[in-house]
Design brief:
Helix 5 crosses helix 6 and helix 7 runs antiparallel to helix 9. The chain is of the alpha/beta class. The relative contact order is 0.15. Helices cover about 35% and strands about 25% of the residues. The strands form four sheets. A seven-stranded mixed beta sheet has the order 8-7-6-9-10-15-12, sandwiched between helices. The protein is globular, with a radius of gyration of 19 Å. The N terminus is likely disordered. It has a single domain, classed as Vaccinia Virus protein VP39 (Rossmann fold, 3-Layer(aba) Sandwich), CATH 3.40.50.150. The N and C termini lie far apart (about 40 Å). Strand 7, helix 4 and strand 8 form a beta-alpha-beta unit. Bound molecules: zinc ion. Zinc ion binds next to loops.
Length: about 300
């Protein structure tokens, strides 16, 4: 079942703490997604050892984000986040963006009167963000220290990347002000784009980056275990851009060749690779405007202390 020599670590369900109720949800030649029948959590069974996580993300996020910054994708992401948070926090306060990348969301909130702090494990992104004068740190939550407690902690499409989201949330709680909220956005495993009905198509899967696939119910269970209470809804439609992107991913991206390319681009080929990636991204961004289906691609959750 686990054929690749690079794979390691067979994980237990982080909610149930065992794998006796595990069944295979998706079995691809390079990775296995497990469905825990006890609690319904879906997770990648193995983690591929392609170097440290830091190295992986440094190769994905290039050092000059001049094109990315203008992308439709970032603008919509920031607007959605700001609107949702404004429903709970009427006045600006201290914001902590975990997985802040280049710091675009921080800049957006600062322009609305907020103080913003950011953290990421990607050196390229943090170097760029610091050059913009942002309060950013290249750190992991376990060794992060800050004088502030935060009114809002943002984890926008990051929770699914961690090896143990439960332990991570417990650590995040230490930085939350008493009446603070955590804004969490993750892909929805129950959406049509991740549905078992189109498994052969492989939908929105991101092996070795997305290690967990949550539903509203499993995210709620996770909050319970972490000592948080949450309110959640679904958001985000499928689009023609998604469909095409998923199709190309299922044909090319999920194979070994892309895994190697994306994580281990030789430095002399990086510029050309990123240029192609930008052009591809721009085309997909335009096609992302043609949307259809129900708004359920992602789960948006607001968590607070119990
Ligand atoms: Zn479980």
């Amino acid at each position: 079942m686990i054929s690749n020599k690079d794979t390691m670590v067979i994980k237990n369900c982080i909610i149930c703490d065992d794998n006796s109720s595990a069944e295979i949800y998706i079995n691809h030649k390079d990775f296995v997604i497990i469905h825990c029948k006890k609690c319904n959590l879906c997770y990648q069974q193995t983690i591929r050892q392609v170097g440290s996580l830091e190295a992986i993300y440094n190769n994905i996020y290039e050092s000059s984000p001049y094109v990315i910054k203008n992308k439709y994708y970032w603008k919509n992401k920031m607007k959605a986040c700001y609107q949702e948070i404004s429903r709970y926090k009427k006045k600006p306060g201290n914001l902590f963006d975990i997985g802040c990348s280049y710091g675009f969301l921080m800049e957006f909130f600062i322009s609305k009167g907020w103080n913003a702090t950011g953290m990421d494990i990607c050196e390229n992104a943090i170097t760029y963000a610091r050059k913009q004068g942002l309060d950013c740190y290249m750190a992991d939550i376990a060794n992060f220290r800050h004088n502030n407690k935060f009114d809002v902690i943002v984890m926008d499409n990051v929770l699914e990347h961690f090896e143990n989201p439960l332990e991570y949330l417990k650590l995040v709680k230490n930085f939350l002000a008493k009446d603070g909220i955590i804004y969490i956005r993750v892909p929805n495993v129950e959406s049509v784009m991740l549905s078992s009905k189109i498994q052969s198509f492989l939908g929105d899967l991101k092996p070795f980056e997305h290690l967990f696939y949550f539903s509203k119910d499993t995210l709620n269970l996770l909050f319970d275990k972490a000592g948080l209470k949450g309110f959640m809804k679904t958001d985000g439609q499928a689009s023609i851009g998604n469909l095409l992107n998923c199709y190309f991913r299922s044909k090319v991206v999920l194979g070994n060749s892309w895994q190697n390319l994306n994580y281990r681009v030789p430095s002399d080929k990086k510029k050309f690779y990123f240029l192609l990636k930008h052009i591809y991204g721009e085309i997909m961004s335009i096609l992302d405007n043609i949307r259809f289906g129900s708004k359920d691609r992602e789960i948006v959750a607001i968590a607070s202390l119990e």
